[in-house]
Amino acid sequence: MKGRTVLVVDDEPDILFMLRMILELSGFVVSDASNGRQAIDAITAEVPDAVVLDIGLPDMSGWDVLERLRDDGTLRAERVVILSAHVSPDAARRAAEFGCGRFVSKPFRTDEIVGALEAIFSSV
Amino acid sequence: MRIFRFVTPVHVVAFIGSVSFLALFIVIVRDAALIRDRARASLVFATACLSVVTIIARVQDITGARSVVLSDLIIAGFLASGYGLVLFRDAFIPLTRRVRVAVLLVVAGTAAFDIAVRFPTSPIPHFTRLQMAAIASFGVVYSLMIGESTIRFWRAGRTVPVVQRARLRSISAGYAGIIAVLGATIAVTKPNAHPVVVLLTQFGSVAVVVLLYVGFAPPRWIRRVWREPEEEAFRKAVEQLLLFTPKRADLAERAVEWAVRLVGANGGLILDADGSFLAEAGAGCDELHERVSNRGPSWEPAVFTLSPDNPARAIVIPLHLKSGAGTLAVRSGPFTPLFGSDELTRLAQYAAGIAAALDRVGLVEEVARRNDQYEALLGGISDLGEGFIVLEESDLVYANDAYLRISGFSLEELQSISLVDLTVPEDRDAIVEIGRRRRAGETVPEHYETAMIRKDGRRIDVEVSVKAIDTEGALQVISLIRDVTARKAAERELKRLDEARRAFIANAAHELRTPLTVVSGIAGMLSERRDALRPSQVADSFEALERQVERIRVLIDNLLDLSQIEQGRLAVNLQPVGLRSATERAMEGAPPPAGVRFRVLVDDGVAVVADPNRLDQVLVNFLTNAYRYGGPAVSLEATDAGDAVLVTITDDGPGVPADLVPHLFDPFTRGAEVRRVQGSGLGLAIVRRLVEAFGGDVWYEPVKPHGARFGVRLPRAAA
Questions:
Q1: Long-range CB contacts for residues B282-288, cutoff 8 Å, separation at least 24
Q2: Which of B516, B544, B547 sits opposite A107 (nearest CB)?
Q3: DSSP state, B660?
Q4: B377 burial class (0-12, 13-18, 19+ CB within 10 angstroms)?
Q5: Is the full-model pTM beyond 0.80?
Q6: Least CB–CB distance from A58: residue in B532, B537, B676
Q7: pLDDT, position A8
Q8: Which element (helix H / strand E) includes B715?
Q9: A53 Cα to chain B: minimum distance (Å)
Q10: Which SS3 state, helix, strand or coil, does residue B578 take?
């Protein structure tokens, strides 16, 4: 996993802080964004190897971000881990429809998120 | 030969007159034998006296014998007959005893005087002065007796029904005739009397006999003649009566009046099949009722004397009603001609008509009664608020008041439109389809819910029950319509509350997820990989932990607050609170951060009614919101509004997005832009409930050109 780049998108600074710590300890190169706009800009500027994307963003939903980037061919959905505080089966189904690599619901254990990213890289 | 010399036309007519008197006497005697009463006894006496007088007169004529004794007998007989006629009058129109005795004394006196003067016995006598006086006294006394009775009978006839009047007039005419004949006889008893005048006098006496016969003992045919004018009026009246009288009691009332009139009765009554009293007319009905009630179930028409003490006669006829035998009874009075088989037959015919009419009217009454019952039942449905309508082949034939109230239309308006148009557009096709299938004889739902549009355009929810009834080939559709708008609204409100509750729980859980994620993630890392972390990362981790735990604590505190308020278990300690000091305490709790310009415009001494601690909480909440979401310039202002104080917190930030404003004071309403900012999403919901608990209210208004203003209206505390 060494050197793989991961963009973490969440509007809660403490979540970003925590994820950055966890992922850096696992050897990922981490960047972050706290809303949809920032995320799109960052990904358009340089496509990361993987994205951890929260659904409940303040300016637009994670789905919107995903749709935009997928439609213009910038990002492949299987490289995205969806983060959601909603546990409704709806969100999981939607993630599957997009073809997202993994779906992780909050609160999660550290090994869940790391495991999800490792699964993406091992399958790609 | 000698005898024939005397047989002149005068003698023949006089003889016929005498025979008539005898015949009258015999008829009266027979009548009196049948019905024994004082009136008939008086008549027997009077006619007997008159018969004797005329017989003596004829014997004198035939034999030529003239004797003082015979003359005296004539005088006495005449006067006695007069007294008899007075007694007859007395039987109808009673005299006082004193008058009766006086009349008797005068009669006796006159007779004694007339006998005493000794009239001459020759056929053409010459009279002395005394004798003339005697004749005059005789004439005067007789004329007074009979004349008074004549007038009395005539006058009595004025106030009684036709049949009785006819009889009274006959008697009166007979009495007058007697006087006339007497006068004429006296007048012609003189030398130069013209034979024709004498003949006419004799004819007159025959005519008088006929009149008396008719008056004293009217035969069947004459009674019919008397009834004739009544019969005609009767036929018309009865026709009206039987066809158009709507009430049984009225019909009976008028029927009995006519029965009484028809036979010249004094009174009458009608009893129902169960013996109960239906109607009475005239007088003496109590006695009659006593006599005719409690007859068995089956009996024949009858004529009988009312009682041993009362010579009045009565006719009783059964009324063959559907429910059994009723009774029609009439009783005679003094002037009643006679109750015979003719009257019986006539009344029996009449009774058949009355019975049929009573049954018919009874039926009509029953129908009306049933109708009233149905009306009352339908009224009951209306009172219960249930609309009720009846459609016959798609035409509205009935709509109760409740339906008119529900729909807002009048019956006429409803009849001029199609009821389907009252249904909300989205349900019309379905309703029409149900109607079509119902007419086709298919089974269709009998209960459904829909909504209709009232006349005033208001939409109301209704519950409808429909039933088709096939009555004699016509399809009648009855519908019950209940306005369930309130219930539906309550159901919707309940559903909304339930959804709000679910959303609240989901929101609360969601709000807990983020801090829990941070806490569990960082805690796990600190315990497992602490040695791999840089010291600054460890320090930051603890700070993050602290922040998130505090966030959880605030959230749980707020949830508890809200829960207590919602359950009505929040204890507020209301008391006067100085607004200035409350503001100062709030500024200590929520000091303005750097960069915020804060202004307070609260006069000293302004006090409101509130719970001091909770008021602090309210103000801190508004101030925190203003610092977090608002602009750099924040002001708190108190203004006077009569018995209330308005506290406003204004900032010059972006203001609240318009789509959030309606839900601003609902739990978990937070703008997307502010999600990053710390908060539970419950603050304003709690604030609103607290202020309401103080008896005040809260609101939000945008500030031009930009900014937000929150207002609180609180009761002013007495100075």
A1: B282/B257, B282/B333, B283/B333, B284/B312, B284/B331, B284/B333, B285/B331, B287/B331, B288/B314, B288/B329, B288/B330, B288/B331
A2: B516
A3: G
A4: exposed
A5: no
A6: B676
A7: 95
A8: strand B708-715
A9: 14
A10: strand
Per-residue pLDDT reduced to its tens digit, A40-94: 999 999 999 999 998 888 778 888 898 888 888 888 888 899 888 766 677 788 8
- CA closest to B547 among chain A residues: A14
In this predicted structure, which of B232-241, B246-255, B419-428 has the lowest mean pLDDT?
Answer: B232-241
Q: Any CB–CB contact under 8 A between B518 and chain A?
A: yes
A89 touches chain B (CB under 8 A): no
Tokens of B650: 């204004």
Q: At what angle do helices B485-529 and A13-25 cross, to 10 degrees?
A: 40
Residue B122: pLDDT band (50, 70, 90) is low
The rounded mean pLDDT for chain B is: 84
Q: Which of residues 28-47 of B touch A (CB under 8 A)?
A: none
B532 pLDDT more than 90: no
For residue B709, give how far its alpha carbon lies from the nearest alpha carbon of chain A (Å): 24
User: In A, which residues are within 8 Å of B521 by CB distance?
Assistant: 18-19, 22, 107-110
- Per-residue confidence (pLDDT) for residue B677, from 0 to 100: 47
State the CB neighbour count (10 A cutoff) for residue B118.
14
Q: Which of A30, A32, A35, A106 has the most B C-beta neighbours within 10 Å, making it the best mutation to test the interface with B?
A: A106
Closest CA to B89 of B17, B150, B9, B136: B150
| C-beta separation of B714 from B668 below 8 A | no
pLDDT bin (cut points 50, 70, 90) of residue B4 is: very low
Residue B544 at interface with chain A, using a CB cutoff of 8 Å: yes
Inter-residue contact B249 to B279 (CB < 8 Å): yes
Q: Encoding tokens for residue B565?
A: 């308020």
Which chain A residues contact residue B520 at CB under 8 A? 107-109
Is A37 an 8 Å CB contact of chain B? Answer: no
Q: Which of B510, B511, B518 to mutate to test the interface with A (most CBs of A within 10 A)?
A: B518
Whether the predicted pLDDT of B672 surpasses 60:
no
CA distance A116 to chain B (A): 15
pLDDT of residue B561: 84
Q: What is the pLDDT of residues B278-329, one digit of tens each?
A: 888 888 888 888 888 777 666 788 888 887 777 788 889 988 888 888 889 9
Residues of chain B neighbouring A106 (CB-CB closer than 8 A): 513-514, 516-517
Among the ranges A46-55, B226-235, B469-478, which has the highest mean pLDDT value? A46-55
User: Of all residues in chain B, what percent carry a pLDDT higher than 90?
Assistant: 17
CB-CB under 8 Å, B544 with A21: no
Q: Which of B505, B514, B517, B552 to mutate to test the interface with A (most CBs of A within 10 A)?
A: B517
Which among B510, B517, B547 has the least Cβ separation from residue A86? B510
CA quadruple B228, B232, B237, B239: dihedral positive or negative? positive
CA distance B63 to B75: 19
Say how many C-beta atoms besides its own lie within 10 A of residue B258's C-beta: 20
Shortest CA gap B426–chain A (Å):
32
Does position B187 have pLDDT exceeding 50, yes or no?
Answer: yes
A58 touches chain B (CB under 8 A): yes
* Mean per-residue pLDDT, B202-218: 80
Tokens of B218: 């009217």
Q: What is the pLDDT of residue B678?
A: 53
- Please compute, for residue B102, the number of CA atoms within 13 A of its CA located in the half-sphere on the CB side: 8
pLDDT band at residue B673, thresholds of 50, 70 and 90?
Answer: very low
Structure-block tokens of residue B587: 């500024």
A24-36: b (≥16 Cβ within 10 Å) or e: ebbebebebbbbb
